Amino acid sequence: MILKRLRLTLEMIKFEHSVFALPFALTGALLAFREAPFPGRLVALKLAWIVAAMVGARSAAMAFNRLVDADLDARNPRTKGRHLPTGLLSRGFAWAFVTASSAVFLFAAGALNRLCLRLAPVVLVILFGYSFTKRFTSFSHIVLGFSLGIAPAAAWIAVRGSLDPRILWLTAAVTLWTGGFDVIYACQDYEFDCAEALCSVPRALGVAAALRIARLLHALMVGCLLALVFALHLGALALAGVAAVAALLYYEHTLVKPNDLSRVDAAFFTMNGWVSVLFFVFWAADIFLHKPGA
Questions:
Q1: By residue range, what is the domain housing residue 223?
Q2: Which of 125, 145, 194, 242 is deepest in the core (most CB within 10 A)?
Q3: How many Cβ atoms are within 10 Å of 169's Cβ, its own excluded?
């Protein structure tokens, strides 16, 4: 029975979509290792704890979001079939999952280093706080973006024990990327947001303008990635990775039009999964092959 409820909870939070932010966090970690090499065994251990922290934090945040939005989800035709509104899962079990996932995150943060542990409660405040933002600000998309964007900076801190300002270019890139695709996703709920007086860029500006804002955010993301390439003196493969990301984002925007949102899921889930994975593949290869000063 518990295993069944756990499976349903993982379905509810779309556990498989951890792929969105995890590659960027791992890239942040690899960039930190690149600056000061570590023994192979320590690298593997650090990466394992970073993955545990990421999975714990995202799982806690997603389950918390589903709890906070359960009543809204029940009234939204697009989301009324989710697990909490339909009673497939109880609120009590969801709260227990949030607690357990938060504990995993805090434990992993403590295993990484003291600064990570000190910052972990701040991270949880940001992650949980996002769930309330759509009730009072159209910048909720950027808050969500920042919730994912802190991952590469956090991974750098996990490795180095301190923050290098250069990695904030990657934080900015992930923030803009996530904010952009969340604006696209929110276009589906334009009418519902208007009816419920919820804040979003589509509600504030209309769907057509919101899609233009999403394109702008993604263009700025590419600019941030280029800035990081030059800040860290990365090589041709990293530049190729930026080009691949730009091409995928361009294609993503061709899938969605103001009068046709039928392919939002393909743009949101499929294309963004490819963006994060291909980015990591290109940048990881560059990190391994292009050493500082080489």
A1: 14-38+113-289
A2: 145
A3: 21
* 169 belongs to a structural domain: yes
d(CA 169, CA 190): 31
* Confidence (pTM): 0.94
Nearest to 29 by CA among 145, 103, 116: 116
Contact partners, residue 38, CB within 8 Å, separation at least 6: 46, 159
Distance CA 124, CA 60 (A): 9
* Structure tokens, 226: 């280029």
Question: Which residue has tokens 């991952």?
Answer: 151
- Residue 204 resides in a domain: yes
241 assigned to some structural domain: yes
Sign of CA dihedral 130, 134, 136, 138: positive
The per-residue pLDDT for range 195-254, each reduced to its tens digit, is 999 999 999 999 999 999 999 999 999 999 999 999 999 999 999 999 999 999 999 999
CATH number for the domain harbouring residue 122: 1.20.120.1780
- Cα torsion 64, 67, 70, 71 to 10°: value is -120
How many folded domains does the chain comprise?
1
Residue given tokens 């009068």 in the structure block? 259
Q: What is the DSSP string of 190-231?
A: HHHHHHHT---HHHHH-HHHHHHHHHHHHHHHHHHHHHHHHH
